[in-house]
Amino acid sequence: MDRVVSDDLAIILTAVLLGTACGLLGPFLILKRQVLLSDAVAHAVLPGIVLVFLLFGSRAPLAVIVGAGVFAVICVLGVELIRNTGLVHADAAIGLVFPVLFALGVIGVTEFAEGVHLDLDSTIYGEIAFTPFRTWEFFGLELARSLPLLGTVTLVNLVLLILFWKELKVTTFDPSFAKVNGISPTLVSRLLLIAVAVTAVTAFESVGAILVVTMLIVPAATSYLLTVRLLPMVVVSVLVAWVAAVGGYGSAVSLDASIGGAMGMVAAFCFLLALLFAPKYGFITRTIVRTRRRSLTAGPPPSVPEPAGRRSA
Amino acid sequence: MDWLINLLPFSYTDSVVFIGAVILGVAAGVLGAFAVLRQRSLVGDALSHATLPGVCVAFIATGAKDASTLAVGAAVAGFIGAAMILAIERTGRIRPDAAIGVVLTSFFSLGIVLLTFLANFNNANQAGLDRYLFGQAAGLLESDLVAMGSLCAVSLLLVALAFRPLKTALFDMSFAGSVGLPVRLIELAMTAMLVIAIVIGVRTVGAILMVAMLVVPTVTARQLTSRLSLLLVIAGIVGAMVGSTGALISASATLPTGPTIVIVGFCVALMAILLAPRRGVLWRSGKLLRDRRRALNEGVLIDLETALHAGAPPTTEELATLSGRPASQVKKGLRDLDRAGALRTEQGRIHLTESGAGMVHALLHQRSLWSAWLEYGWTLDIPDAREPDPRDLKSSLGDDLTNTLLQRAREGGWTAS
User: Which of B233, B254, B278 is the last residue before a domain boundary?
Assistant: First the structure.
């Protein structure tokens, strides 16, 4: 049987699709300060995966996605519930909920599912290198199954963003204004987190949790340093994710290192570059501007007074 | 350490795990408080993941796989990660949670790359390094306990010695800076303490579960006290109790140690959130119910007094019409009053008993005092700057002031002399 795409291309395409799906959602997480909730969700779904395996004895992608999705929702709602008591800060609420769900998953794995292709490494570290070998058949053609799965998720995220662009934008920047205008910030926020959870779950069935979390956080953070408007931020975030995907694969092959890890490293490198050299918010750029301004103010006073109303920024 | 292990009524391995869990609980409880109270709980998450590349580099550099070498590598990587979080935050644009997320994923990616790098050397000795972040309590040795214990003791001593500056910086960084405390140094010290707790813990319970060990004791202790000194002590005790209980349960039920400890800890924190005196969710809702009931009873009593003043003793229905409350509420109030011995019913008509009349009198007095306070309270020359307790004005104002207040209210005015 023929494979539709070569192994290399399948891996790169998987990573690019993942980067697109995550890059679309990441900016909203950064702006809503919910970055770490994505990390929490990525870990909290473990008991869902284990439970599906114990109940149905399967690792079929759809069953796993549903099981994990349920626990993602439990995690998000649990964090909200604890935070709403007003007794615990949001970060501590996250720190209470996701470790306990993860612990339940670990107990499930070690007690009941040991030695049956469900070890922690494969769910947490994941291995994008194996994606070409897990295939589905379509009309006699063999296709790495991560491609249709991630393709669907990417499409769904894109449609969500286009349909709810206005709602997402207004709830992100001004929740009270959104509420006054009849758009529920809680509802939109839940929708976003469910999209994140579904993306994460689908993705680490094929690429591992850590790469998903990286793709959600790092490209969006990089883009936040480079842009000041929402649409460019989303576009740049997707672009950075693509750079990480392609560059990561290239360097992983040449260094013979973990593909997911190398992608993460390339993303981190992009972030570092942006942190230092971004035109407006970069550390070095800012330092240069500051020293220039300082030398201006320290120098002799300008002989011609500046015209009123034109202030230098 | 031998005598301690012999003292415990468990097998050798279980005793070692038990002592390790207690040390970890105390260290994570006390040192974690400084992260949790600054709303930086998840820095612990990032730093425990950040130890992975450190462990790999330590292994590459020395070729040794003993706990102390790896712990030094882990600590160095943890410090670098912590410093990077602070640095990224300080550049201004990136907010703390994103900084934590970026450091977490970058260091972990680096760790994974280093792991595969090691695997390519085909060095049989590296096996098991990738398990470092999952934690293996059973792998603890007696020598580890000594190292963990002394690290823990040293850092607790430091906390005790530097308590005042730590406390000041914890609650108000800007104030601490303005009175000349070395704020940057203190911030670094707090992070360093967190790294120490993490290095102690990661090997035992693993990176993810370490987060819970840092958060649970402080969240629990915070529900029980509002004083930092007490909070640190309680957090240490809670940590030790959670660690020891978890270790015992896991030993008797042959469950993995780390997850069991975390689940025990979560239950403890949840109990504290629900039941804590004065703060807990259930406590507060119970108090709300009691307050509502008392307000209803007092209202019905006053209504009854008004009705008795106006005419014949009312029936229950008449009282309900008169007071404008739903009949069911009035019945509930009357039942409570009857139980308190305030009522006497004759042929369906309600009278006040001797003690009931006394209750009404006290209540009316209290209300008139309250309205006098609202109108003329500002004219009083109160020696104490604090607001008096509105539920018990009489005793918090004292007899003299109460009489003055009532007199001014009776005279219907007061002019400044």
Answer: B278
- Asked if B269's CB is within 8 angstroms of A99's CB, the reply is no
Q: What is the pLDDT of residues A174-208, one digit of tens each?
A: 999 999 999 998 889 888 888 888 888 887 767 77
Are residues B177 and B39 both part of a single domain?
yes
Chain B partners within 8 Å of A121 (Cβ): 130
* Other residues' Cβ atoms within 10 Å of the Cβ of residue B386: 7
Residues whose CB is less than 8 angstroms from the CB of residue A65 and which lie 6 or more positions away in sequence, other chains included? A198, A201, A202, A205
Does one domain contain both B167 and B107?
Answer: yes
Mean pLDDT, all residues of chain A: 84
Angstroms from B358 CA to nearest CA on chain A: 41
Going by the DSSP 8-state scheme, the letter that residue B125 receives in this structure is: G
The sign of the dihedral angle between the CA atoms of A206, A210, A215, A217 is positive
Among residues B246, B278, B310, which one ends one of the domains?
Answer: B278
Place of tokens 């008392």: B294
Same domain as B143, residue B30: yes
- Cβ atoms of B272 and B224 within 8 Å: the answer is yes
Is B17:B257 a contact under the CB 8 Å cutoff?
yes
CA distance B288 to chain A (A): 15
Element at A12 (helix H, strand E): helix A7-31
3-state secondary structure of B187: helix
Residues of A with CB below 8 A from B105's CB?
Answer: 210, 213-214, 217-218, 264, 267-268
Residues B267 and B287 in one domain: no
Residue B417: its pLDDT value, please?
A: 46
Is the domain of B295 the same as that of B257? no
Range(s) of the domain holding residue B348: 283-352
Q: CA A246 to CA A234: how far, in whole Å?
A: 19
Q: What are B370-400's pLDDT values in tens digits?
A: 888 888 888 888 877 777 887 788 888 888 8
Query: What is the DSSP code (8-state) at residue A303?
Result: S
Q: Quick count: other Cβ atoms within 10 Å of Cβ B184?
A: 11
Q: Are residues B261 and B387 in the same domain?
A: no
The reply to whether B210 and B328 lie within a common domain is: no
Length of chain A: 313
Residue B142 within any structural domain of the chain: yes
- Confidence at B123, pLDDT banded by 50, 70, 90: low
Name the pLDDT band for B341 (thresholds 50, 70, 90).
Answer: confident
Look at residue B416 and tell me if it is in a domain.
Answer: no
Q: Are B136 and B144 spatial neighbours (Cβ–Cβ below 8 Å)? A: no
Q: Judging by DSSP bridges, how do beta strands A135-138 and B349-352 pair with one another?
A: unpaired
Residues B109 and B197 in one domain: yes
- A307 — pLDDT class (breaks 50, 70, 90): low
Span A7-216 CATH architecture: Orthogonal Bundle (1.10)
Contact B45 A275 (CB under 8 A): no
Rounded Cα gap, residues B245 and B268, in angstroms:
11
CATH number, domain of B339, equals 1.10.10.10
Number of domains in chain B: 3
